[in-house]
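TICKET #2291
ISSUE: user wants both folds in one file
ATTACHMENT 1:
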Amino acid sequence: MTLTELLENGATIVDVRTEAEFMGGNVTNSINIPLNEVPERVSEFKAIEGPIVLCCLSGGRSGQATAFLQAQGVECYNSGGWMDVNHAVGQVS
């Protein structure tokens, strides 16, 4: 599925950057769960209905989070940098 298709289907956007990075700019309506908190918050990810789109600054941390969460049975996708996701959201809206 493409990022656009995921967003059109109501995907939840989770930004795995630090809180400080997130506060410096983020995708509107995205959720901030820093990468270091992902393992202890798996139940929160499992409670999200529908697909989850993960982002960070460049795609590295979101890639790590995606691999970990998929191994836990969570439907999620690495969408790379948050600015790219933000642009895609603007195209879908």
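ATTACHMENT 2:
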Amino acid sequence: MRTKNVILLFLALLLAVAPLGLKQGAEFAGADGQAEEVITQVQPGYEPWLDSFWEPPSGEIESLLFALQAALGAGFIGYFLGFWKAKKDTARGS
């Protein structure tokens, strides 16, 4: 059991680090910027329907809010899966 966990941890780390080493000097950009580029190429006169009602004061705060959103989502999913598993185990009598 312990060996399986070590192998899974190694694979997870490999998946996280491999993209950084595969493209040396690559610039990683968000999907929003890439989508905007493609839209302006396809239709140069495009005007967005809506604008942001609040722009974060800095990129760091924007990153913080994104990380917070991801953490809350992961926490919610983890809680739901744990609750579901515990409920299933209780029903089995384990």
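RESOLUTION: both attachments delivered.
EXTRA DETAIL ON ATTACHMENT 2: The two ends are 20 Å apart (CA to CA).
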